[in-house]
Design goal:
Pathway: Cofactor biosynthesis; tetrahydrofolylpolyglutamate biosynthesis; Cofactor biosynthesis; tetrahydrofolate biosynthesis; 7,8-dihydrofolate from 2-amino-4-hydroxy-6-hydroxymethyl-7,8-dihydropteridine diphosphate and 4-aminobenzoate: step 2/2
Organism: Lamprobacter modestohalophilus
CATH topology of the largest domain: UDP-N-acetylmuramoyl-L-alanine:D-glutamate ligase
Structural class: alpha/beta
CATH superfamily of the largest domain: Mur-like, catalytic domain
Largest sheet: 8 strands, mixed
Distance between the termini: 35 Å
EC number: 6.3.2.12, 6.3.2.17
Strand content: 15-25%
CATH class of the largest domain: Alpha Beta
Mean pLDDT: 93
GO molecular function, one term: tetrahydrofolylpolyglutamate synthase activity
Pfam families: Mur_ligase_C (PF02875)
Helix content: 25-40%
Strand order of the largest sheet: 4-3-2-5-1-6-7-8
Shape: globular
Radius of gyration: 21 Å
Low-confidence stretches: none
Number of helices: 15
């Protein structure tokens, strides 16, 4: 084995490929075939649901994982990025893969890659798939890392593909129009298989592309929908399938009903192969967890952590924040990555925030404090803002300013939320 620790493996993977992102499938597909020659190209020995989209994909995976686990199926989930430790990306029956399991998978990949310069994400994708095959999972849930058409997980043909939403993000890679982004996201659809769209106003190009390739589009507001009913909700899907008296999702916000409805449609498409009863669906809705998406921490003042880093996510966050009870002020700790549109994140939140604390994370990809400050100054935000030397100081300053009735929102990226979770200032989730 090349390395003995997970940290050493990951550090090496960061340097192996000259580019952090390399959107091609030929290289990783060839390595996968050498790693598991017994499998047909593009197939796993289990059912596969691939989930993509700009926002909401993590929530959809979380719902599916909760439902399949409640029903007793052996479930593998691959997501990214992680918050606190790399192991979060690969879960078997709800448990993170161990360091030993990941190191062994990386060693097997290294032995067969035949000199291929795999990226960090490609190594992780291969490791997750390898562990799923060896564990004999009955369902694999694969979250797209970036885009869809050329993302590493798309070397596997999904039995059901779900695109949660389309918005502006990663435009340097995916294109600068919603139609171009939709085309890339639609790359996970397959001919003759369900293509679930979890957005009522999704760009028309997304559904058009599904129809062009012969996939079976099922879109929120058309083939599937949900309605509120007496403190609960009802889901209606293709072929007149319905589930009623469903409890509110444990994940907060109205948008989570859309995500749950889309995920439920994906679940229903595999019901002949992997049936899940209504009791398991209800249990999963009550138990589903996803850190960093409007995560409310116990105690006073109230801390809310959200990884929102684009306009669509910020709009959803603003809706949730506006409806969340707060007797005092709302303070925000904001830190973004350099490739994000700070103005788009700030705009929907600005009317709700009484004071901003800005910080620059330790990430090499962090937005410079001067750029973040300039974006806030140019916005319509009228609340006081203070720039701090780093993110830790911003968190400490917000905590020192807040009274027991106040609320502190930590927002901007996975890196930002990670810093909060690691901070000694607040309790971890």
């Amino acid at each position: 084995m090349r390395f003995q620790t997970l940290a050493d493996w990951l550090a090496w993977q960061e340097t192996l490929h000259p580019s952090r992102i390399d959107l091609r499938l030929e290289r990783i597909s060839a390595v996968w075939q050498r790693l598991h020659p017994e499998l047909s190209p593009g197939r796993l020995p289990c059912a596969v649901i691939t989930v993509g989209g700009t926002n909401g994909k993590g929530s959809c995976v979380a719902y599916l994982e909760a439902w399949y686990r409640a029903a007793g199926y052996r479930c593998g989930a691959y997501t990214s990025p992680h918050l606190l430790q790399y192991n979060e990306r690969v879960r078997l029956d709800g448990e993170m893969a161990t360091d030993a399991e990941l190191c062994a998978a990386f060693a097997r990949i290294d032995q067969v890659r035949d000199g291929a310069a795999l990226t960090y994400f490609e190594f992780g994708t291969l490791a997750a798939l390898d562990l799923f095959v060896r564990a004999g999972v009955e369902i694999a849930l694969l979250e797209v890392g970036l885009g869809g058409r050329l993302d590493a997980v798309n070397m596997i043909d999904a039995d059901v593909a779900l695109v949660a939403s389309i918005g502006f993000d990663h435009t340097a890679w995916l294109g600068d129009t919603l139609d171009l982004i939709a085309f890339e996201k639609a790359g996970i659809f397959r001919a003759g298989r369900p293509a679930v769209i979890g957005q009522r106003d999704a760009p028309a190009r997304l559904r058009e592309r599904a129809e062009e390739i012969g996939a079976l589009p099922m879109q929120l507001g058309q083939e599937l929908d949900w309605t509120a009913e007496a403190g609960q909700w009802r889901w209606c899907g293709p072929n007149d399938l319905q589930y009623g008296a469903l409890p509110a999702p444990a994940l907060r916000g109205r948008r989570q009903y859309d995500n749950a409805a889309a995920a439920l449609c994906a679940l229903a498409q595999l019901s002949d192969r992997l049936p899940v009863n209504l009791a398991a669906i209800r249990q999963g809705l009550l138990r589903v967890k996803l850190n960093g998406r409007f995560s409310v921490l116990p105690g006073r003042p109230t801390w809310i952590l959200d990884v929102a880093h684009n306009d669509q996510a910020a709009l959803t966050l603003a809706e949730n924040l506006a409806s969340y009870p707060c007797a005092g002020r709302r303070l925000a700790v904001l830190s973004l990555l350099a490739d994000k549109d700070a103005s788009a994140v700030i705009a929907p939140l600005a009317p709700l925030i009484d004071a901003w604390h800005l910080g620059q994370s330790a990430s090499e990809r962090a937005m410079a404090l001067e750029d973040l400050t300039a974006a806030l100054a140019k916005s319509e935000a009228t609340a006081r803002h203070v720039a701090h030397a780093d993110l830790d100081q911003a968190l400490a300053a917000a905590a020192a300013e807040a009274g027991p009735e106040d609320l502190i929102l930590v927002v901007g990226s996975f890196v930002t939320v990670e810093a909060a979770l690691r901070s000694s200032i607040i309790a971890t989730v």
